Structure formats: structure tokens, C-alpha cells
Fold:
Amino acid sequence: MVSPLAGVRIAVTRAGDRNLAVASALRVAGATVHEIPLTCIESLNQASLVAAVAALASYSWVLLTSANAVDHLARAMTPATTHLLRARKLAVVGPATATAAEALGWTATLIPEYFSAESLLDALSSRDDVDGARMLYPSAQAARDVLPNGLRSLGAIVDVVHVYRSAPDPLGQSQLRALAQEGALDLVTVAAPSAVDALLDALPAEYARRLPVACIGPVTARAARLAGFPVKVESSAATAEGLVRSIVAAFAPLR
Structure:
């Protein structure tokens, strides 16, 4: 039996060990996989987060929209504030973030049906404990303001604390550029608009417009289209399994 992705050459660009599940599943499906992080996570000054954590008792909700936010929040915790956090309501954007939180013993109060800031906002808007509630939102520096602005319009008090930023990884960009110039890639996965920006920076214009990408979520797909990349795969499921299923389905007609 021929593997569904046999002969397909894919670059998985998600930073850090969070690309392992995607890369492994793609290899099981028969793909030739290059693991090339295009971005790296840089922590910002944590003083504001430490101060917010010290005042955790004043918050009703904590909003977590990435595993990186979970990691940074965990580093700011103390035994006393960890106990307080378990008494707060926790809203997470999707399964990867929920898994990272659960690994620390934090149980999500709310996970939206679809994994985006818009869906999390919709899920919160249907509740009766948002108006007047104070919420802590540790986030990336370049995070969109859809969630905090939407919650403020519902009457919530949202404290946004920028705890990290996504920065280009020059070595990864160089590796991907070399593969693209060799014609050695059929697809590149991107998991965030910052990865789209880094991919665009890595490639000469003649390659950037013709290299197909597989995107997790509509926000990343929109960024990729605006940058001029042909979007071959748009996965609504922010999981390794969901992305791989979408990639297999996209290549199935070619088999």
C-alpha cells in the first residue's frame, strides 16, 4: 500500500518542540519532512506579569491563547499564586493550549468549539459572568486586539500583559531559502502570521509567490494570501492530527 504522502517534501516551520507531533505524523504518512523553525520566542521584561500574578486574587478570569503564554505564566507563579490560579476561571483558545495548562494542573473552564480569538470571544459573550469581570491576558507582543477589545465591549476589564514576542530565526530562514532554491519543497507549514512574515523574509520574491503553504487557521491563511503565497491547505483544527488530515486530503486528488 502506497503511503498517502509518499514523495511529498514538506518543511514544518513551527518553532521549538511543538512541531514534533506534526513532523512525526507527516513522516508516518510517508512525507519527506524538514523541520525548520523560522521564528524563535523571545521573552520580554516579566515585571508586569509578576505584578499581575501577585494581584491574581483580583481577577475572575485568566485568558490563555498560546502554549507560550502558559509557559510564561507558569514561570511567574509561586506556590501561593498557583493555588489562587486554580480558583480562577481559565479560558483557553484550543487543545494545544489546554494540554499545556493541564500539564501544570490547571483545568480550563472554557475551550471554544473553533480555535481562534474570535471563537473564544463568541464563547465568552454567551456567558453571564463576563460583564464587570476583571481578566488577565498574558499575550504575545504582536497579538491581535480582537479578544481584549471585544471583551471590553461586553463590559469586562481586561489587563493585557505582553510577555513574549516572536522573532525571526536567521538560521532557519537560511535553511529554508536553500531548499526552496533547490526546488526541494512541495509544501511549507505555517502556524501563525509571524511565521508567514518570517517565510516571506526568507525567500527571494520569485520563490515566495509560488511556494504552496499549509496554514493552521483562517487568520494565518489570510496572512499567507495577503503575502502572496498560494494556500494549498487551510486546516481549521489546531492539532497535529487535523493539520495532517488536511494535508493528506489536499494531495489525495494527485495520487
